[in-house]
Structure formats: structure tokens, C-alpha cells
Amino acid sequence: MKNVNPTPIESKALTKNFGNYCAVDSLSLTINAGELFGFLGPNGAGKTTTLQMLCGQIQPTSGTARVMGIDTASDPIAVKSAVGIVPEIEYPPSFLTVEEYLHFVASVRGLPESDSADMWIEFFGLEDRRDTLCMSLSKGQKKKVTLSAALLHKPGLLFMDEPFLDLDPLIQVKLRRWLLDYVKGGGTVFLCTHILELAEKLCTRVGIIDRGRLAAFGSISELKNGADESLEQVFRRLVLGQDGHDVEP
Ligand SMILES: Nc1ncnc2c1ncn2[C@@H]1O[C@H](COP(=O)(O)OP(=O)(O)O)[C@@H](O)[C@H]1O
Ligand SMILES: [Mg+2]
Which residue range forms the structural domain that includes residue 14? Predict the structure, then answer.
């Protein structure tokens, strides 16, 4: 695994406006090496927009972000080459086979072609789809190829936007275990999700974003109001201002 800056992610007053609409409002975050950080929030809260600013995919309106010590606004390409990014919706190119696409990504990243591609093809059980055009894959298989492409170069920092969507339960368990080993080995994960059970199982700390603003930040036990409160109740309390105790299942 590549050497990781002691502070993989640091943002200060990071803000994104789309016209008059403020999607992310003055977000300040520090994520440490070896953290599996869960970025939670309802639909439209600003999770994907934040991830895209941190990865250098879109420019912030104001504020700053440093990822592995690199300023994301002034050197977005360096950020993208250093980290692994699993976008929420991105399909591999239709007219390449699984193997061709992974070899292409490996060559762009200056890696020996086959080694790591083979490892991920095997990890995701895609051996018999190796020569299939990506356009002919199922949605879940496309997601597996996208994940493989993001992981090929063994990045020390991973940005993942709803990575478990479309994956079957068996591969979800396998990926969860892999992520836990990855952070044990010093890797860092910024995981956007609205699946609270997943955050509860995996994350060292979470941030809850609501309407572009950070509503809470800390370990799950720090966020809970007493031992019997579930993460869903924390979420309801912070996002909806409700006491979640009498909510129907
Ligand atoms: N390119 C864009 N132009 C205008 N509004 C956008 C754009 N991208 C996102 N938004 C808006 O910003 C808000 C946050 O979106 P997003 O970050 O995708 O939310 P989340 O990932 O938390 O569901 C939403 O209200 C969305 O409609
Ligand atoms: Mg999103």
C-alpha cells in the first residue's frame, strides 16, 4: 500500500453553490489515516457533492480541501491519480471487455497489466465474464468492474459513493471484510452511504450531513443519546428533529 499522508483528508469551510442553491455549506472535516469514515445523510444532503470536491472532480465555490496533502482545487489531477474513487453511478465503457478495460486502467496508472486485474476479477467472481463486453454485464457485475478499476493501483485512500448498491449479499459481506482489513492495514476510507446498518457495522466515525451542513460528527457511540438509541434514532433526531423512539419499524 502506498504511503499515506498523516492527514488523508482535511477540509476547511468547503462550500459548493449551484447557482443560488447551496449544496454544501462551509464543511470542515479532518479524517485520519486508518479511519473508515461514514458520511451519512438523506437524499440530496450534499454527500456526493462533497466527495466530488474532495476528489478534485468539481471545484468548490469557496473553502479549501487537502487530500493526502494535495490541494484539490489547484491540483485535481494529482488527487485523482493518488486515490481510488468509486462513483455512485458510472458504468465501464460498453465496447471494452472486462479484461480489456481493467488492463487499460492498469496501463494508464503505469501498472503491470495482468497481476492486479486478475486478482480483482477473481475477488469479484468475474472469471467467466473476463471476455464479455461491459455493455452485456448485469448492473451488479458492472459495479464489480468499477470497484476493481478503483482498487487496481492499491490506493492508500478510497472514496466510495454507495459502493454496496447493486451488489449481492455474498459479495457485500466479502467487500465489508476486505474494507475492514484494508483500514487495519493503514488504508483510509471515505464512505458515502444512506445505509445506516452498514455504517454501524463498519465505521470508526461518522458525519451526518443535512441540507449541506454537518449536523453531527464523531464515533457512533458518541452520537448516541444513551446505550439504547439506534443509529436510525440518532439520524431521525438530528435530521428530522424527532425523537425516534416511537417510530414504526
Ligand atoms: N450539477 C448540479 N446542479 C444543480 N444542483 C445540483 C447539482 N449537483 C447536485 N445538485 C443538488 O445539490 C444537492 C446535493 O446533491 P448530492 O450531493 O448529490 O446529494 P446526496 O449525494 O447527499 O444525495 C441536491 O439538492 C442536488 O439536487
Ligand atoms: Mg449521492
Answer: 9-83+155-246
Residue 113 and residue 77 share a domain: no
- pTM, whole model, 2 decimals? 0.93
Mark whether 131 and 183 lie in a shared domain: no
178 contacts: CB under 8 Å, gap ≥ 6:
123
List, in order, residues 6 or more apart from 132 with CB less than 8 Å away. 97, 98
- Do 217 and 192 lie in a common domain? yes
Tell me the C-alpha to C-alpha distance, in Å, between residue 234 and each of 96, 109, 238, 244: 45, 41, 6, 8
Residues 68 and 172 in one domain: yes
User: How far does residue 24's CA lie from ligand 2's centre (Å)?
Assistant: 12
* CA angle in degrees (0–180, nearest 5) for 212-210-36: 95
- The H helix count followed by the E strand count for the chain is 9, 10
Residue whose Cα lies nearest atom 1 of ligand 1: it is 18
Residues 126 and 186 in one domain: no
CA angle 76, 77, 79 (to 5 degrees): 65
- CB of 49 within 6 A of ligand 1: the answer is yes
Express each pLDDT in 139-171 by its tens digit: 999 999 999 999 999 899 999 999 999 999 999
